């Protein structure tokens, strides 16, 4: 909150230490690192990504972590995910030791 209210700037390394930077790229390698992050995200179910983002964003409006966890099943993207073929495909692909085939349905 102090950083938000004061606008204090921090270097990437300090952001990493404070926990709001995921990774610091060596000079000249930021695009390669960004592409790797994008590939890692895109390897997951699009429905799972959507549900995760919605859970985090809507969870910020909940008074407690317990409330956020309890209420996540009411979020539309989470409901859609748990009714989808993707929710079964992930564990099945893992058990069969193969990459998942996400359908987004």
From TrEMBL:
<dbReference type="InterPro" id="IPR029045">
    <property type="entry name" value="ClpP/crotonase-like_dom_sf"/>
</dbReference>
<protein>
    <submittedName>
        <fullName>Enoyl-CoA hydratase-related protein</fullName>
    </submittedName>
</protein>
<dbReference type="InterPro" id="IPR001753">
    <property type="entry name" value="Enoyl-CoA_hydra/iso"/>
</dbReference>
<keyword id="KW-0456">Lyase</keyword>
<dbReference type="InterPro" id="IPR014748">
    <property type="entry name" value="Enoyl-CoA_hydra_C"/>
</dbReference>
<dbReference type="Pfam" id="PF00378">
    <property type="entry name" value="ECH_1"/>
</dbReference>
<comment type="similarity">
    <text>Belongs to the enoyl-CoA hydratase/isomerase family.</text>
</comment>
């Amino acid at each position: 909150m102090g950083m938000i209210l004061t606008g204090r700037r921090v270097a990437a390394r300090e952001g990493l230490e404070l926990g709001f930077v995921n990774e610091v790229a060596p000079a000249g390698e930021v695009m390669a690192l960004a592409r790797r992050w994008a590939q890692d995200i895109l390897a997951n179910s699009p429905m799972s990504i959507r549900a995760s983002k919605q859970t985090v964003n809507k969870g910020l409006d909940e008074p407690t972590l317990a409330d956020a966890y309890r209420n996540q099943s009411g979020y539309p993207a989470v409901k859609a995910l748990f009714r989808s073929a993707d929710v079964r495909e992930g564990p099945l692909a893992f058990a069969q030791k193969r990459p998942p085939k996400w359908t987004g349905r």
